[in-house]
Amino acid sequence: MELYNFLKDITLQAGENIRKQLNEPLLIETKSNPNDLVTNMDKATEKFLFDRIQDTYPDHRIIGEEGSGKDIDNLNGVIWIIDPIDGTLNFVHQQENFAISIGIFIDGEKYAGVVYDVMRNILFEARAGHGAYKNGVKLENITETPLATSIISMNPNWLTKDFTRDIYIPLVRDSRSARSYGSAALDFAYVASNKINAYITLRLHPWDFAGGLIIVEEVGGIVTNQLGEPVNLLTANSIVVANKSLHTEIMNDYLSPFKLELEKIHQGRFSKR
Ligand code: IPD
Ligand code: CA
Ligand code: CA
Ligand code: CA
């Protein structure tokens, strides 16, 4: 089976496994803090995907949130970047609004990405250079919007912190409205499908955005860090994803004035995955 079809096939199978086991008891553990949860289903889904990829493509390398490929420090060859459940808090509390996110890169170049909204059975997919699709229907290029008529997505936690409040409040204030979905992968997919016009966040890991980046860039979306630089697939990053003119407006009018503060925040914070 061609690699792209294999990617979609195992994603859909992984989603079906999750749906089938939704009523089984969950084992919930905490990671870095009491609100950073991981479940047996996050781990089982990563293992399912890891095993399927290794069986079929033993020379491919895999980076996953729940431990796969921790030692990978370059992008040589075929690399899968996997978030088995993006939106674990939604998964635990709501049993919906979470996604499987996968991006495949070959020698650092985009190959293909998927974001699968498991409970709604909506597959966002893209092969670099071949357009992006939502359940088989080609997505249009996203529309350019000024902030004043844009819906932006942002985790409200960033508005509660002393070191970021002043940077982000004007963005929320000047937008049409703000949303927070709790799954970065879905945020990227929603920008790609024009449901929202931008997503801004201060810290994501490569597995949160690897799939979504490939999808949104296929429809004209721009993805950078908050200093306007390309994102790094091997470290944590800040993120601005938006249609082209809105990305320029956010960078020029809202983030650049805080360049020094943002540089300080970035120093040291984003050196590690
Ligand atoms: C999280 C979600 C969330 C984002 C966090 C991520 P996880 O991923 O994408 O929306 O705000 O930064 O860590 O842990 O649920 O896979
Ligand atoms: Ca997590
Ligand atoms: Ca994630
Ligand atoms: Ca996750």
Automatic annotation (TrEMBL):
- Per the UniProt record, the source organism is Macrococcoides goetzii
State the UniProt keywords alphabetically: Hydrolase, Magnesium, Metal-binding
List membrane-spanning regions. none
Q: Which reaction does it catalyse?
A: a myo-inositol phosphate + H2O = myo-inositol + phosphate
Matching entries from InterPro entries are given as:
Inositol_monoP_metal-BS, Inositol_monophosphatase-like, Inositol_monophosphatase_CS
E.C. numbers: 3.1.3.25
GO terms of molecular function: inositol monophosphate 1-phosphatase activity; metal ion binding
In Swiss-Prot or TrEMBL terms, this protein is called inositol-phosphate phosphatase
State the Gene Ontology BP annotations.
inositol metabolic process; phosphatidylinositol phosphate biosynthetic process; signal transduction
Q: Coiled coil where?
A: none
For activity, the cofactor(s) needed are: Mg(2+)
Which residues are listed for Mg(2+) binding in this entry? Answer: E65, D83, I85, D86, D208
